[in-house]
Amino acid sequence: MDKDVAELLSRSVEKVIPRELAEQKFKSGEKLRVYFGVDPTGAKLHLGHSVPLRKLKAFADAGHEVVFLVGSFTAMIGDPSGRDTMRAPLTREEVEKNFQTYKEQASKILDLSKIEVKYNHEWLDALKLADLVDLTSKFTVQQIIQRDMFDKRIKEGNPISLHEFLYPIMVGYDSVVLDVDCELGGSDQEFNMLAGRTLQTAYKKRDKFVLTTRLIEGTDGRKMSKTYNNAVYLEDLPNDMYGKLMSINDNLTKTYFECLTDVPTNEITEIMKGHPKEAKMRLAFEITKLYHGEEVAKEAQENFEETFSKGEAPKDIKTVKIGKDAVLRDVLVEHGLVSSKSEFNRLEKEGAVKELPGGVYRIGKHRFIKVMRE
User: Which one of 119, 130, 178, 360 is most buried, counting C-beta atoms within 10 A?
Assistant: First the structure.
């Protein structure tokens, strides 16, 4: 197999289903039609989201026809993947507002001017009841409840709404409309993507293969998620991004290199032979460079070394003026140093909120602020 094709099917990839079909399509020499769909259920993208986006870019760079699909209809249903409880549905206005920020952030990875962008409300809004009945007839209840989160909820006596059963069928219909050779997405989307493969066969469209990308663990070793407050966001400031990356577990460094950087595989192998801290510093530099540029990444690295090696505060520390009666907790929440009052209380209890000389406060390992009281 061609080296570039082999990397497309392996780097940051969890599964290729069925692999034989993927290899057959590549051997044909024809350009493939590939898509990745995302539901804009929030306003911020983190590095975990970047893995399938980077894979979509890799297909585009290889000359294939790629589609970035916005789940403008399915986000209003709510993806049940990995959920112990029902996800709150969104309005069309909320979805559109979220996507505006998604689009700006995704453009840090994708050249959207060279990629086809689609919205699934364009065809899902148009479905009639008879169409929906026909779609649902392609699946059995037994197939749907095989999903681990549904099975778990049933066993625990937690409710499952009927509209959640429709989610994989709706996203599966996207594949029918787009008529693709490949769909890619996170490994937690495998069931949904295979539903699309089932429908493409039922409606006599081209046969597609499914490529699942690896899920990334966050700074605390759990799945990267806003919920766990362990995410590195694409819009993080350079110093914050670099500092967060330096705080990950050493055993994640190789995975981050493979899934989140453009460093060649053979070079990663050599880097990992060195000291763990040096490897992680190279990783933090490479990722910060991707989203902020090389010069800014160098500054972030120098700033980190001064802050943590010499015990100094960052050069560009944020300075705020507050009233003499202002509560520190509220100031930190207002300026984004902590996400909530409860996070502040937890960090303070753990001894992670420290006052340094000159009115400087250090929150956790890499967050600093200088407070000047009136």
Answer: 178
Does a structural domain hold residue 134? yes
Report how far residue 189's alpha carbon sits from residue 174's, in angstroms, rounded to the nearest whole number: 14
Same structural domain for residues 240 and 370? no
Domain residues for the domain of 363 are: 317-374
- Residue 330's Cα: distance from chain center in Å? 29
Q: Measured between alpha carbons, how far is 219 from 221 in angstroms, rounded to an integer? A: 6
Reported pTM: 0.80
Of 10-14, 132-136, 160-164, 312-316, the one with minimum mean pLDDT is 312-316
Number of domains in the chain: 3
Cβ–Cβ < 8 Å for 220, 228: yes
Burial of 258 (0-12, 13-18, 19+ CB in 10 A): middle
Which CATH number covers residue 337? 3.10.290.10
Residue 369 and residue 353: Cα distance in Å, rounded? 11
Q: What is the pLDDT of residues 50-99, one digit of tens each?
A: 999 999 999 999 999 999 998 889 888 876 555 445 556 778 788 878 87
Mean pLDDT of the chain: 88
DSSP-assigned beta bridge partners for residue 354 = 362
130: confidence class by pLDDT, cuts 50, 70, 90: very high
Is 363 found in the same domain as 244? Answer: no
Provide the sign of the torsion angle of the four alpha carbons 138, 140, 146, 152, taken in this order: positive
pLDDT of res. 83: 47
* Upstream peptide bond of 18 is cis (omega within 30 degrees of 0): yes
Residue range 281-296: mean pLDDT, rounded: 97
Question: Are 262 and 325 within one domain?
Answer: no
Phi, psi values for residue 119, rounded to 5°: -125, 125
